[in-house]
Amino acid sequence: MRPLWEATRDLHHACEAHPVGAAMASGKPPMEWYGEWLSGLHTIHSVLDAHLPPALHRVERLASDMRVAGAQFGCSGAATTYAAQLTTSEALCGAAYVLTGAHLMGGEIMRRRLEGYPTEHLLWDDRKLALQELVVYRSRTDIVQESRDCFAALLRMMDEISERSRHV
Q1: Share of the chain above pLDDT 90, in %
Q2: What is the Cα Rg of the chain in Å?
């Protein structure tokens, strides 16, 4: 069986290539997009964090970033739908793998690029402990589909964000 990162690589790259993902990677996304992204992550972490070790909790930090961004952002239907599907251990672990990996690995790069944007959710009290927790998820071979489901939900969130901006 392929490692989890390899089995999800196509969707990971699709997220990076999406116009919203590319804008985030540039370090200069429209604040509306960034705020909606934070809101969607907050919706997911509002369910997920209760099942994660405390070292991986993000919901309070996401709420802080949303306050600093200073605006009310819409609730993502895709995030709400996905969060409601986090009902099994495998689904929770798949989400933990994708989101913890994103916040820890890509997040370290993003935090530096997003100068002037609130990025508290990308900071860690104990990064080494968080990395140790990530290794537990990363080594799993039974959560491939659930990890792919999380990436697919992130893509749907990005689609919503870009679609809303076309209608504004």
Answers
A1: 88
A2: 15
| Closest of 143, 148, 149, 152 to residue 1, by C-alpha | 143
pLDDT in the model for residue 15: 97
Q: Domain 30-162 belongs to what topology?
A: Heme Oxygenase; Chain A (1.20.910)
* DSSP annotation string for 61-115: HHHHHHHHHTS--PPPHHHHHHHHT--SHHHHHHHHHHHHHIIIIIHHHHHHHST
Question: What's the one-letter identity of residue 159?
Answer: D
Give the whole-angstrom CA distance, residue 164 versus residue 157: 11
CB 147 within 8 A of CB 9: no
Q: Where are the domains of the chain?
A: 30-162
Please, which residues have CB within 8 angstroms of residue 49's CB and are 6 or more apart in sequence? 56, 57, 58, 59
The whole-angstrom separation of Cα 33 and Cα 154 is 13
Tell if the pTM clears 0.85, that is, is over it: yes
pLDDT in tens, 7-30: 999 999 999 999 999 999 999 999
Residues with Cβ within 8 Å of residue 7, at least 6 apart in sequence: 1, 144, 147, 148
26-55: per-residue pLDDT in tens? 999 999 999 999 999 999 999 999 999 999
